[in-house]
Predict the structure.
Amino acid sequence: EVQLVESGGGLIQPGGSLRLSCAASGFSVSSTYMSWVRQAPGKGLEWVAVIYSGGSTYYADSVKGRFTISRDYSENTLYLQIISLRAEDTAVYYCARSPEIPTGKYFFDYWGQGTLVTVSS
Amino acid sequence: SYELTQPPSVSVSPGQTATITCSGDKLENKNTCWYQKKPGQSHVLVIYQDSKRPSGIPERFSGSKSGNTVTLTITETQPLDEADYYCQAWDSRTLWVFGGGTNLTVL
């Protein structure tokens, strides 16, 4: 059974940094596209970062230079390193999997339940 | 930046048909899907590649596309279908873009 469990969120001061984790089970995070998606309070979903099975990474313009997506094959875990946190980064952060099919990159077939990041002094 | 527009809310009576729209520029050229989100639960993919239904999703859920609008249709709507629904589009330039979400109320 595929499961994604995020952790690492919390209350962080502006300018701070943190690392979010997404522990996966039932598949390998290295075998397919894995993304982070966030939802700010009262807002819609926003895709922020992806790591392809080959290791390439891409970011939304709004987070480029401050967010780094990575993965650990042995831990089967996806990460999101965030630096220089801003109030507008306050959101629930979800990890999401794209399925290993030829057209799988177009959508997400499994999501975690999310971890809340609050940026405030 | 690319935007997808959904109505904030839709209401439907039990047993009736609910339709949720999602519009965006040149949407006809993009791959689209729909997610369902209930409080305390993970997002569930209900439609992918415009009109395909994942295994385990009831046949009551269907997707269609016409021009720059995609539509999620739920026939014989049940109280358990009450949720937020998000459309999402993909293309090689904008990657993954979501609509603002529609709260479906069944009453």
